[in-house]
């Protein structure tokens, strides 16, 4: 299974486990899970904030509210992420 996580998980092709490959695959899985959680939280928050009465379609004000809410949410997430990564780098440098 190319690029997937089938029975060859962590295998280097020779049947032996490759710890580096396993770590990379785990990192990818974590990144995907984090992205899914971010999207779910953003959707929930913006839906609650912008949609008064769910219906068959969004009116103009709801569309604008959703777009602005998602932009602000992503900006805030990016700011927090940069600050967190910066802090991690400073802490690693002080070790």
Order of helices and strands: HH
- Helix and strand content put the structural class at mainly alpha
Give the count of helical stretches: 2
CA(first)-CA(last) distance:
41 Å
Radius of gyration: 20 Å
Helicity, as a percent range = 55-70%
Output the CATH topology of the domain at 20-49 and 57-92.
Helix Hairpins
Q: Going by CATH, what is the homologous superfamily of the domain at 20-49 and 57-92?
A: Mitochondrial import inner membrane translocase subunit tim13 like domains
Could you say what the CATH architecture of the domain at 20-49 and 57-92 is? Orthogonal Bundle
What spatial form do the alpha-carbon principal axes imply?
elongated
Task: Give the strand tally.
Answer: 0
How can the largest sheet be summarized?
none
Given as residue ranges, the uncertain stretches (5+ residues, pLDDT < 50) are: 1-5
Q: Beta-sheet strand percentage?
A: under 5%
| CATH secondary-structure class of the domain at 20-49 and 57-92 | Mainly Alpha
The whole-number mean of residue pLDDT values reads 87
Organism: Delphinapterus leucas
Membrane topology: Peripheral membrane protein
Subcellular location: Mitochondrion inner membrane
Family: Belongs to the small Tim family.
